[in-house]
Task: structure prediction
Amino acid sequence: MIRVFIGFDAAETVAFHVLSHSIHRHATEPVSVSPVMLSQLGKVFTRERVPMQSTDFAFSRFLVPHLAGYEGWAIFMDCDMLVRADIAGLWAKRDERYAVQVVKHNHVPQEQTKFLGAVQTKYEKKNWSSVMLLNCGRCKALTPEFVNTATGLQLHQFKWLGDDNLIGEIPTAWNHLVGHDPYRDDAALVHFTVGGPWFKEYEGSDYAGEWFRERDLVLESQQRVRIAAEAGKK
Result:
């Protein structure tokens, strides 16, 4: 079973559902998709939100190894994404030499703000943690206590590993930064990091048409279910 955890923020609920649909639609192996949702984490996640956070899952993402029982592998991804390829392709990149595998972006954002006026922060290893292939048994430093008290840089710069040699790489196609990276047809996962097409200001972004088509497939599925349910009552 491919375990996928997606960061959830109420302001981007539609993004979560479209991303989840895109994962399942392309998958050739069984996939379990779980939201990292603060309303479900009250017993383990207690840190207060700070102004620098642009999403609810800025820090809670690092609870994934704990949620997975520190066993096996798991994928974490932000919700502001669209999967365009078989997630089994990413799953196949697991390498036991590493505790975590990421796209090692050299990303220095030029904009000062992003969606909903959130401050655009700049730091080393920016966006590395937005897609993570996690070897959960080697991430035991990420206890709830540590995740609740560590600084943002300790978490997002993977200082909890103690050794950057434990950070492996995955192909850049699996975390393509829309608006920063040049358009590519073979992007397996596109990341609307500045703002996604579900916000009016970003309806013209690269890959927005694909995102809207995926959304329409979700809506059509819901409509078919509703019609079938109504027919069953007659």
Notes: The chain has a mean pLDDT of 91.
